[in-house]
Amino acid sequence: MLDTDFFRRWMAATAAAVDREADRLTELDAAIGDADHGSNMRRGFAAVSDVLEKEAPAAPGAVLTLAGRHLISTVGGASGPLYGTLLRRTGKALGDAPEVTSDQLAEALGAGVAAVAQLGGAQAGDKTMLDALLPAVEVLGGSFGEARDAALAGALATVPLLARKGRASYLGERSIGHQDPGAASAALLVGALAEAAGPNGGGGA
Ligand code: ADP
Ligand code: MG
User: Fold this and answer.
1) What is the Cα–Cα distance from 163 to 179, expressed in whole angstroms?
2) Start and end of every DhaL domain (predicted)?
3) CB of 122 closer than 6 A to ligand 1?
């Protein structure tokens, strides 16, 4: 079972990964956007870490809804509302259960990803964060390690795609040949699940 502390570790591991990789995310965004994705994500997840320490929410769902709210209020740019919606909707789907199974998390994250697709109007293959999130959600009930690998493969597979949504879509054909920054950060978020679960925790709960 995944308890509240697991979800706090997930957010902390995401914040650490985003901080570590911020320069790479910004470089990816410099190629097909406006070079702010690393700083956006770093600012957002630093705020998430702060508020989770201060408020210590008492259930998995509450951790994610609080994190989502803070991403929306601290991240300017497209990714704030999109990641905020992802975490808020996932948290809402978890309800106030004190512990959840990895299948329940997979289902809730599926609802969160569907909300991102609805908000941004994007679908698979549009060269967005969805290209990492959708394949991860499909295998998440099985193992976090598999989900991490699927997200990473999905992010790398955005390189040859033409961007159809967001700022990168303004470039048209010139967006081809670059990895989508939001797909790269989504792979960090999914990879952080495996980190939060620990060395033997990748096999689901
Ligand atoms: P901005 O584009 O406003 O500068 P960021 O650079 O922080 O915001 O985030 C860019 C990322 O947001 C993109 O790489 C893409 O993955 C994601 N994104 C942008 N628009 C959409 C959308 N409509 N649907 C899903 N993801 C999107
Ligand atoms: Mg940007």
Assistant:
1) 10
2) 5-195
3) yes
CA of 137 to the centre of ligand 2 (A): 25
The rounded distance, in Å, linking the Cα atoms of 187 and 149 is: 8
Q: What share of the chain is helix, strand, coil (3-state, %, to 5)?
A: 70, 0, 25
Gap between the Cα atoms of 43 and 34, Å rounded = 16
Q: pTM, whole model, 2 decimals? A: 0.97
Asked if 28 and 175 touch (Cβ cutoff 8 Å), the reply is no
Q: Name the token pair of 182.
A: 């939001």
pLDDT tens-digit readout, 23-45: 999 999 999 999 999 999 999 99
What domains can be seen in the chain, in order of their start residue?
2-197 (1.25.40.340)
112 lines ligand 1 (CB under 6 A): no
d(CA 152, CA 175): 19
Distance 103 CA to ligand 2 centre (A): 33
